[in-house]
Amino acid sequence: MLGAHFSVAVGESLRVLCLGAHADDIEIGAGGTILRLLGEYPATVVEWVVLSAEGERAEEAESSAGRFLVDAKEYHVRIEACRENFFPYDGAAVKELVADVGSSANFDIVICPRRKDLHQDHRLLGELALNTFRDHLILEYEIPKYDADLSSPNLYVPLDPVVTERKVELIVDGFPSQRHKPWFDAETFRGLMRLRGVECNERFAEGFHVHKLVL
């Protein structure tokens, strides 16, 4: 299949915004894509925003972001403390935070949760991203979970085995507080990337949902 590419020359700068409702969301949903992007566009500047993380989770979120973004030309990490699982009920505060992020810079790519995600925090953040970033390329990532809400992506980012394993390693090592959860393991993360790879005739890939794309 003919692939699409960014209309930016290698070596030119991209400004990327990564939005996560919780610590580890960005890494699980788009960690491989981010690693690949930084490998191909080392002049990339990244704004990394996690809306709900406190204590140990905040420390994990900040440390993990640094490991994923080590090859970025420049990056900024912002960790907020919105109430986990209460985003729709604290919607005004969450919306103000997203609006504040949106006013801070002009981004080329926005990476955020899927608007049809069944987790209420993910879903609201995805909706606010579309409301806030009206003329941007928005990639909505997917997160596997008990709710069984995965559907068919309409955009795939192929990943080579090195990037795939690097993503898995960084997530498993970076979030020790989550290791007790039955779904949080290398098999889950690698398995989803393998499935998405099958769907785009590659070994591994990450899948995204794109509302609007200009070629």
How would you portray this structure in words?
- The chain is 38% helix and 20% strand.
- It is an alpha/beta fold.
- It has one domain: Rossmann fold (3-Layer(aba) Sandwich).
- The chain has a 7-stranded mixed beta sheet, sandwiched between helices.
- The radius of gyration is 16 Å and the shape is globular.
In short:
The chain has 215 residues and is α/β, with parallel strands linked by helices. 38% of the residues lie in helices and 20% in strands. Helix 2 runs antiparallel to helix 5 and helix 5 (161-174) runs antiparallel to helix 6.
At the fourth level of CATH, the homologous superfamily is LmbE-like
Strand content: 15-25%
Q: Strands of the biggest beta sheet: in what spatial order? A: 3-2-1-4-5-7-6
Radius of gyration: 16 Å
Reading the helices and strands in chain order gives EHEHEHEHEEHHE
Shape: globular
Largest sheet: 7 strands, mixed
From the 3D structure, determine the CATH topology. Rossmann fold
Number of domains: 1
